[in-house]
Amino acid sequence: MKDWNEIKAWRKEKRAELIARREALDAATRHRCNERITALIEAGFPDWSGGVVALCWPYRGEFDARYVARRWRDRGAITALPEVVEKGMPLRFRKWWPGAATRHGVYDIPVPDGTDVVTPDVALVPMNGFDEAGYRLGYGGAFFDRTLAAAAVRPIAIGIAYELARLTTIYPQPHDIPMDFVVTETGVYRAEHGKLAALEPQASCTAARALLKARRTPAGADLSAGYSSPACYAHEIAPGYFGEQQDLSRAETLELLNTLLEAERAGAKVLAAFLADYAPQSPAWRQLEKVQRDEAGNCAILISLIRQLDGKPSAATGDFLGKALKINGRVARLKFLNRGQEWVARKIREALPGLEAADVRDALSAMHESHLLNIEACEALVETLEG
């Protein structure tokens, strides 16, 4: 296939086919793939502390990069989302964190509204398809290729897709730029010399550090002084993160669900009390009211899950309520609230690999995501109050 019009038609057909296959994945399979890819990314790359990581809002069943992005933010990274400036132009990236103001962009995907424009050191790039040389099949607008080509210092491009998107070739053209790395649920791959080579986590760390250093170093400079990038954190991945944890029994699952129910009930009551610290319908009040509704909604979900397992929902309220109500001051209260939310998120994250029932696993996965986003929103509110 040599004619560009033929290639474009083939790509359009293949793109539609691969997107349909991705969207057809059942929730349990999608969750397992996302967990595996998240673990591989975190294990296989440095934490980018002090750097800027660009990610994309998940669209049409794509991998959700917000989990791993949060962990990099915890270690000091800045995260950003792309903005389409106009057709035929490179993308622009704006700083983003959960709670940042957004507006609807192309395909109604959220775009940060008025936050600082930043230059990425690393880009997590979703792929509808990819080939054995590391070339990416996107949505046809060539925005990422154009962006990579125009960058003064090209960011490290980590292409992310499910393994079902692998192709022999996408018939790359001169304007196509291969990814530096590719990550699927089966592993991490280095795209080099026209082929993909599988890498172990430590090798991924080393390769990424070397590549980042080389791109930041002026031509002819001495590269022997050692890496300036952060250390690899592959050894810090918690045991069981890659799915080797044993399945929880029904009794253990019910105990977990009731523990979470008591914690969420306490959180909902704490937030109802904390709302009195803010003027009704003010931006801060609306943000906390949304978090409160999430906590109350989680209680209903947990009760339903417990009953599905023929269990008895706990009527107790966690100790968090009494402790939280003794704290004075809006900032101190919000920080304490987030410690409680972080405890719940960690409890869910540790349990997810051992949950056998797909409906329980999917519900808790969504609950975990909502906690991460609410934690970020409360942290943003703390920054506003302290500023």
| Overall number of structural domains | 2
Specify the CATH homologous superfamily of the largest domain.
Answer: NagB/RpiA/CoA transferase-like
Q: What's the assembly state of these chains?
A: single chain
Assign the CATH class of the largest domain: Alpha Beta
Name the beta content range.
5-15%
Task: Tell me about this structure.
The chain is an alpha/beta fold and 387 residues long. The chain has 2 domains: 233 residues, Rossmann fold (3-Layer(aba) Sandwich), CATH 3.40.50; 137 residues, Ferritin, CATH 1.20.1260.10. It is built from 10 helices and 14 strands. The protein has a 9-stranded mixed beta sheet with strand order 6-3-2-1-7-10-12-13-14, with helices on both faces. Helix 6 packs antiparallel against helix 9 and helix 7 runs antiparallel to helix 10.
Provide a compact summary of the structure:
This protein is of the alpha/beta class.
Layout of helices and strands:
Blueprint: H1 4-23, H2 27-44, E1 52-54, H3 66-74, E2 78-83, E3 92-95, E4 102-104, E5 110-112, E6 117-118, E7 122-126, E8 129-131, E9 136-137, H4 143-150, E10 156-160, E11 166-167, E12 181-184, E13 187-192, E14 195-199, H5 201-216, H6 250-274, H7 283-308, H8 320-325, H9 330-351, H10 358-386
Parallel strand pairs: 1-2, 1-7, 7-10, 8-11, 10-12
Antiparallel strand pairs: 2-3, 3-6, 4-5, 8-9, 12-13, 13-14
